[in-house]
Amino acid sequence: MKAKRIVVVGNGMVGHYYVDQLAKQNAGHEITVIGAEPRPAYDRVHLSEVFSGKNPEDLALTTREYYKEIGVSAHFGDAVAKIDRANKEVVTDLGRRFAYDKLVLATGSYPFVPPVPGSDQPGCLTYRTIDDLGAIRAHAKDGKVGVVVGGGLLGLECANALKNLGLETHVVEFAPGLMGVQLDGGGSVMLRQMIEELNVQVHTSKSTQKIVKGNDRKLRMEFADGSALETDMIVFSAGIRPYDQLAKAADITVGERGGIVIDYHCRTSDSDIFAIGECALFGGRIYGLVAPGYRMADAALSQLTDKPIPFQGADMSTKLKLLGIDVGSIGDSHGKALHNGQPPASFLYSNDRERVYKKIVVSADGKKLLGAVLVGDCSDYDTLLQLFLNDMELPANPEAIILPADKGSSPLLAGMSLPMTATICSCLNVTKGAIVAAIEGGCCSVADVKSLTKASTGCGGCAALLKSTVNEELAARGAEINNNVCEHFAYSRQELFHLIKVGSLKTFDDVLHKHGKGRGCDVCKPAVASILASLFNDYVLKKEHASLQDTNDTFLANMQKDGTYSIVPRIPGGEITAEKLIVIGEVAKKYQLYTKITGGQRIDLFGARVNQLPEIWSELVAAGFETGHAYGKALRTVKSCVGSTWCRYGVQDSVSMAILIENRYKGVRSPHKLKSAVSGCTRECAEAQSKDFGVIATENGWNLYVCGNGGMKPRHADLFATDLDDATLIKYIDRFLMFYIRTADRLQRTSVWMNNLEGGLDYLREVIIDDKLGIADELEAQMALLLDTYQCEWKTTIEDPEKLKRFRQFVNSMDEDPHVVFVQERGQPRPAKESERDALTAV
Amino acid sequence: MSNAIHKKINPEPIAMFSRSDLLENSGVCVLVEDVQVAVFYLPNETPEVYALGNHDPIGKANVLSRGIVGDINGELVVASPLYKQHFSLVTGRCLEEADVQVPVYQVRLEGETVVVSL
Ligand code: SRM
Ligand SMILES: Cc1cc2nc3c(=O)[nH]c(=O)nc-3n(C[C@H](O)[C@H](O)[C@H](O)COP(=O)(O)OP(=O)(O)OC[C@H]3O[C@@H](n4cnc5c(N)ncnc54)[C@H](O)[C@@H]3O)c2cc1C
Ligand code: SF4
Ligand code: FES
Q1: Are B71 and A518 a contacting pair at CB < 8 A?
Q2: A339 Cα distance to chain centroid
Q3: Is the pTM here over 0.80, yes or no?
Q4: Are residues A522 and B23, on separate chains, in Cβ contact within 8 Å?
Q5: From residue A472, how far is each of A344, A387, A395, A429 by CA, in Å?
Q6: Which of A550, A806, A812 to mutate to test the interface with B (most CBs of B within 10 A)?
């Protein structure tokens, strides 16, 4: 029988990866994940960025909602207390029981706190979880001095955090040098010097005997050599220990010094139980990095398919920035192991003045790279790592690789010369071959490749290599293809816009015949439709335009996962009368639609069948509603706060301004959607600074912000102009929007457009305010044309029987789509899940 | 709403309706018995009509008739409106996922009548 119920213990980085990948296989597993921490998985690798300004939320790798969406049953803040192997169940602290066919242990590890007397008092902390960060911050607040015990990779990162918190920072290390695992003696000495120059005090060969109450500071550490150090807090970072207690208690084999023993398939001694990530012991070793954990997860996942892939150990090379210092370590960095029975040779470049230390370890014949240490300059890391991982032959004088460029070094070996099998991103296991395939499949930028292959979305260490690989591949294909709309048009959107405008072309066919080839596709058709709309503003369902639109535009509604549509009437500024609310309520009730308040201050009605749309919209239009363009690359909402009308702080009437703006620009088609907001004072309750254009009231008028974005990659809007009167505000917005519409790429939000705009904000001000290009009048005139030709597309549609023909489920039957099935949840309908639908339609 | 005729001729189920029910350069959906068929009308191509199963096996909903039609490297395709995979109008093959395919049905124009058979 196939394993159906999969239970995953631990929702850390590796546990999450496993769950996510398994769900994506869509193989009908019932997946449960239980995490001891109170929150879903987050990016532990970048934990310390919270001290340099990131929010803990920014680290999230997933959300409860996402798990719900992909059908994973997830439980947080409850640890698994016991594995009952006889009954194939796990039992949690809270007494919940989950039955499994296969169990996956991804419990990770915890910081080792040496059993020093006094190490359990307040002020003695660890550094591994988001909760730990809170405790560290709290102690740092009323302290002056902080000590990190442990001079390894994590310890130094923690030292950086303490320093960022403004503490006098010390690192205490038991061994004679820092980062003894990754660095050789020379590298370690250089690193120490550099760290000390940053005013972090380093104490090596120190063994802590006990921790007692301090005289000047809260705590006092006493060392074996008789010396002592006073501090307000101590963070232990002296190595990690795997969470293997669960396994041990269930009689699953663990290593002598901890770790759940696994085989090539990541199976523990119980073949129905897997262990992956930092809790697992493979070949006598714990892999304390995330990439090997992901590879274990891949191996364990493959066990559920008929194509098992083994885990064969993993590379532990690392590149980091510690306290701002570049440090890299590859392979056998100490140069100790024999290679083909022969001791290796090493080459060293060390420059005290510039603080650079580079060493490479090569095979006796000088042909293969075996290891490397880099301190102070990691620019050769990518090259060296690729040479190492791909077992590539070294140049005749390997030392040239690490010599500074002006001393005769060979040019950096870049992506081009790498074999297709070379791993570019080790976190996500993306090879050069996969990147080339992505480019051949139409990706034209690093961003495209990133989103398709997920390369560089883990630790980010491969970003530079990814970029050079992508750019070289693109260049090899003729870089100008870069921003072509698609295979049918060898132009960027901006060029196409210009050609259409100058040639006064009015239909897709004209544009295609004149400037394109083939028949068009789902990329260029909507893009051209959008340009035509921005220039001439025809009715989108006009015969010659109708077939160009994405389904959402064709049906003037957003398609949902089950093929039904949502309906979003415009509610300008978020202001709505009781009468209109009642109409929405009544329509929803009559057609049994799911209703929800959106994030954009309006109401969305979901679950309308295609044939119901005209009828529903007839009722809404009759009650005075217009389309909200939730489907279009067009203005969405202009959010408002209540402003001076009611609010005791408001200095201008933000609601009236929001309504004015929303009504002015509604229906304007653009490269991507446009959002706006107006706040009545600097408290900014309407969140205008996260919008494509946002307005904030001042005592003297309005401040205009441009190119903000929420969504996937939030960007704070830039302050563009201050204290504007109403007319100037509108004038600037007209020009700004039209300039964006003309020059942006397809599906490029204003934020990305701005990031790519040569000259940036200053240039934009010159164009919009100073009219440097002399096009301001033209931009305004173009906008005026669009405003004059506005029509509510739904109103036009319901008045035209010919257009309504499109809204039939079947051209030859009045039947409805039997595949659309709803179930009730919290008093409203929702689409049935596949299993529910099968059950409901079976009868 | 429809001026179409739906009739059954043995042995193979067919549906017939009027050319005027088709939408130029896009699709409509037709019921043949209880099978949903997406019929695409490309007046500038030969043949002018194409028929595929309406069910999108990737998005798992009956929506292919509502996709945009066009060509990819010369192959006529419809893009699923849900997740944008392309399906060949001729072979039903999915261009992005080699092992996914939708059924192809017989369709022809007899004067002003469109005839679809399973
Ligand atoms: C309904 C709503 C969620 C809700 O229940 O509240 C929603 C729903 C969708 N959003 Fe959104 N977004 C909604 C507010 C937002 C907001 C908040 C806001 O507008 O204040 C944001 C962040 C702000 C921003 O855009 O900068 C937002 C950022 C996105 C993004 C990411 C855009 C980005 O630039 O990163 C997408 C994806 C895209 O557009 O490519 C998206 C796409 C979508 C789509 C169209 C996804 C899809 O293709 O099916 C959803 C369809 C809506 C539907 O079927 O009606 N939605 N979406 C909200 C509708 C607001 C409205 O009244 O129009
Ligand atoms: C500050 C810091 C910096 C780092 N930097 C890097 C880096 O630059 N590069 C790199 O590759 N790696 C780095 N790492 C290591 C990396 O974070 C780990 O390798 C990775 O998180 C291991 O993933 P995991 O899922 O095995 O364990 P974890 O991420 O630790 O997750 C295990 C989870 O299981 C939970 N759990 C434990 N027991 C139970 C139970 N009984 N029931 C339920 N849940 C349980 C734990 O609470 C935890 O949430 C860093 C780690 C830290 C702390
Ligand atoms: S932004 Fe200012 S005026 Fe508007 S609601 Fe908030 S506090 Fe009141
Ligand atoms: S190597 Fe970590 S993200 Fe690519």
Answers
A1: yes
A2: 41
A3: no
A4: no
A5: 34, 18, 22, 20
A6: A812
